[in-house]
Amino acid sequence: MHVAVAGNIGSGKTTLTKLLAKHYKWKPHYEDVENNPYLNSFYEDMQRWSFNLQVYFLNSRFRQVIDIHESGKNVIQDRTIYEDAYIFAPNLHSMNLMSTRDFENYISLFELMSSFIKAPDLLIYLRANIPTLVEQIQSRGREYEESIRLDYLKLLNERYENWINKYTLGKLLIIDVDNLDFKKPEDLSVVIEKVDAEINGLF
C-alpha cells in the first residue's frame, strides 16, 4: 500500500509522515531537502534556478515512486510527484520565475514520467491557512526558508486547493491542520481514526 501526504510548505507533512509511519509500521519516504544541491541557490535566485530545482525534484520523486512499487512494502511518502507539476512549477511560471520554454519542457517530461507510475492508494492532504504555515516555517528555523514571501505561500495555497478540488486519481483524505498539533496524542488520534476509516476501505 502506498499512502502519500501532500500540503503546502510548513503544513506538517514530514511530522505527520513520521508519526503515521511509526504508528502503522509503514516505511517512510521523505522529501530530500538536506541533500538537494539546488535548494539554497533557488531561494537566493529563483529565476536562475527554478527549472533545475524542479527537474531535480521530478527525477527524485519519480525514482521514489518506482522504489515504492518495487519494494512491495507498505509505504508512506512525504509529498508527491503531482505537487511539483500542478502547483510549484506552474506557480513559478506564472510569477515569471520560470520561462515558458522551460515550463513546457518540464511539463512534457512530467507527462511522460507520470504515464509510467501509479498514483498513491490514499492521498492525505493537509489544509492550512497562511498564519499556520508561517508559524510552522518559523518554528523549524531553516535558513533558506527565511526569505519565503507571504504572497508566494498564498499563491501556493490557492493552487493546492484547485488541485485537490479536481483530484480523482485515488482515495483522498483532507485534514484541516489549523487547530491540530500532531505532537499532541489526542490530536494525532483524531487523524489516525480518519486514516483507519480510509485504509480499511482499501482492503
- Write down the domain tally: 1
Strand content: 5-15%
Q: Name the assembly state.
A: single chain
Strand order of the largest sheet: 2-3-1-4-5
Average pLDDT reading: 91
Beta strand count: 5
Task: Kindly provide the name of the CATH class.
Answer: Alpha Beta
Radius of gyration: 16 Å
Task: State the end-to-end CA separation.
Answer: 10 Å
List the total number of helices.
Answer: 8
Largest sheet: 5 strands, parallel
The run of helices and strands is: EHEHHEHHEHHEH
| CATH topology assignment | Rossmann fold
CATH architecture: 3-Layer(aba) Sandwich
Overall 3D shape: globular
What helical percentage do the residues reach?
55-70%
Low-pLDDT stretches: none
How do you describe this structure in short?
By secondary structure, the chain is α/β, with parallel strands linked by helices.
Describe it for me?
Helix content is about 55%, strand content about 10%. It is of the alpha/beta class and about 200 residues long. The protein has a single domain (about 1-200), classed as 3-Layer(aba) Sandwich (Rossmann fold), CATH 3.40.50.300. Strands 2-3-1-4-5 form a 5-stranded parallel sheet, with helices on both faces. Helix 3 (about 45-70) runs parallel beside helix 5, helix 4 (about 80-95) packs antiparallel against helix 5 and helix 4 (about 80-95) packs across helix 7 (about 150-165). The protein is globular, with a radius of gyration of 16 Å. The protein starts with a strand and ends with a helix.
